[in-house]
Amino acid sequence: MEQQYSSRDFEIVGENFITENIEVKKEKSFKETFKEIPYISVLVLLVIVLGCAFPEIITKQEPAHMDLANINTAPNSMFIFGTDSLGRDIFIMIWYGGRVSLIIGVMATAISTTIAVIYGSISGIASEFIDDVMMRFTEIVLSIPSILIIIFIQAMIGKPNPISISIVIGITGWMNISKIVRSEVRQIRNNNYIWAARCAGGNFLYILRRHLFPNFISSIMFMVVTNVGTAIGIESTLSFLGIGLPIEIISWGSMLSLSEKALLSNYWWIIIIPGIFLVTTLVCITNIGNYIRKKNNQEFSNL
Amino acid sequence: MVDKIIGISKKVIQLIFVTFLLSIIVFYMARLAPGDPLVSYFGEGVERMGTAQKLEAIEKLGLNRPIYEQYFSWLSNAFHGKFGISYKYKQDVLSVIKDVYINTIILGGLSFVLTFLFALLLGIFCAENEDKLIDKAICKIGTITTCVPAFWVSLLLILIFSINLGLLPSSGAYAIGQSKSIASRIKHLILPLTVLILNHLWYYAYMIRNKMVEEMRQDYVLLCKVKGLDKKRIIYKHCLRNIMPSYITIMALSVPHILGGTYVVEKVFSYPGLGTLCFESAKYHDYNMLMVLCLITGILVVIANMAAQAINERIDPRMKHDRGEKDWNNNTAPGTLK
């Protein structure tokens, strides 16, 4: 007797046989994409940036105006955030000081990113030996705490002003980005389109601008954004410790440098209010940076 | 045995080479700095010196020779333990450092150990409760704590605990005249330690959380589960062991990070240590002191890196002879079918 088999009687076995259903990821709708944007951070940052960019609209008063009759007044209806030990209105100083702080952050990042991109691409394109030497150099520089290098260079430069501070922060903060740039360039440097561009006579800067840069921009973007926050933080630390901006140049850091005297007399507003603005800005920038990083490496999770 | 000796001597040579490079960089930077180098030897007295006296001093100190010659004479002096005189403290650099380095070691070492202990526990706790409410809350709070500059946290803590509540001292390493009293030292350590731990904790805890989450998706975890092991055992006995090498590498890489933080916090709390010395000498252009401090810090970091590599090789034999890196990155537990 012959038995009849249907395909259901058999089960396909084997170690590589896939039993799970593979889900195809659907394209996200606009609403879902919008939900992921850290819009609270973006909004808050926008308010702070706009306020610092156009402080003249908020108040007509000069930030450096010293009202000697009202020294160290606690926040009241006239001075919303109080006044500091020189009689300056903290509410006005916040916006003018924020301008300096933000400018330093952006300028320092621009400098460090430029150095990092150029250094990293040279190291990525160069021969094995030169690449090795260049990367050892970055490791040695990374091995000294950056605050130490910064105070060393700052001590050499002498009188600090916003530009010198951003240069100092810029030339000490490029190592991490340059490492990423280098590894990205290493990966793409042997692609055919690079060879084609070279054969057609494109020089290094042309290839960097047209071919390499668009390729690694997305992977360094989040570090660039976070670097703005780091630079603002370093500036305020330096100014607070007395080797950054002097008190006459108003920034969030130099406002906080008055706080040592304020501590003893318990004038909390001089310490807390500029600090809150500083921290809020840093948190917003970090959140946006994290969002950019997440958007860039969207890989499937195994679970 | 021979392998071991070769390995150790290689490391020593590497250490010497890096120190040498570092000293060249630091020396050139200090000498090329604008400002009169004579000031760093004689202080304000320079202004009262005549031209002939100045020339004589320059000749005597060898400042008219090319920099590389100066460097070698500095180097040979350094081998005899003479790093010059600190202009600010009017003493030999080493004797100034000798008085305070122990304070930095106590603060830095304690914060290092405690940060990594808490980071490990917090990271594992978050990984266990992945994507639950508590994990998300800790992640949010943690992100904020890493953004807050250390000096501002210190100010807040001083404001709350020493000014308003009057519980803890706000500066120094010990109460006056009580340098031997341990209780006094501990009391002075609490605030700086809290700041340092708060500032660095989440950065490392988050790394461990992510590593752990990745590790828990591995196939061998499934096998352990099938075998009937409970969750705690799998995490602490199997997963933890596997993330340990990268954890130790992170620890080594974090030395400059935490040391830098220690320096800043020391200055805020006026804690007598290397950090306070650094800022003071930067303020008064005391290059002799700064150079030595940079060198010490750099050497410390290099040694930490080497120690980490050595420990890793012991824990994970796959890391030996540099080919381990590949195995580690492949992320395949032995025996996984591919």
Automatic annotation (TrEMBL), chain A:
Keyword list, A-Z: Cell membrane, Membrane, Transmembrane, Transmembrane helix, Transport
Query: How does the record say this protein sits in the membrane?
Result: Multi-pass membrane protein
Top-rank lineage group of the source organism: Bacteria
Q: Name one GO cellular component term.
A: plasma membrane
Q: Where is the protein situated, by its record's location annotation?
A: Cell membrane
Q: Which InterPro entries match?
A: BP-dependent_transpt_permease, MetI-like, MetI-like_sf
Bilayer-spanning residue ranges: 37-58, 102-125, 137-157, 163-181, 220-247, 267-288
One GO biological-process annotation of the entry reads:
transmembrane transport
List, alphabetically, the Gene3D superfamilies matched: MetI-like
Show where the ABC transmembrane type-1 domain sits. Answer: 98-289
**CDD domains (UniProt xref):** TM_PBP2
Which family is annotated?
A: Belongs to the binding-protein-dependent transport system permease family.
Looking up PANTHER family in the UniProt record yields: D,D-DIPEPTIDE TRANSPORT SYSTEM PERMEASE PROTEIN DDPC-RELATED, OLIGOPEPTIDE TRANSPORT SYSTEM PERMEASE PROTEIN APPC
What's the protein called, per UniProt?
Peptide ABC transporter permease
Source organism phylogeny: Bacteria, Bacillati, Bacillota, Clostridia, Eubacteriales
TrEMBL record, chain B:
Q: Please provide the Gene Ontology terms (biological process) for this protein.
A: transmembrane transport
Q: Point out the signal peptide segment.
A: none
Q: Does the keyword Cell membrane apply?
A: yes
Report membrane topology: Multi-pass membrane protein
Where is this chain's protein located in or outside the cell? Cell membrane
* PANTHER family the UniProt entry points to: DIPEPTIDE TRANSPORT SYSTEM PERMEASE PROTEIN DPPB-RELATED (PTHR43163:SF6)
Q: Which family does it belong to?
A: Belongs to the binding-protein-dependent transport system permease family.
> What name appears for this protein in its UniProt entry?
Peptide ABC transporter permease
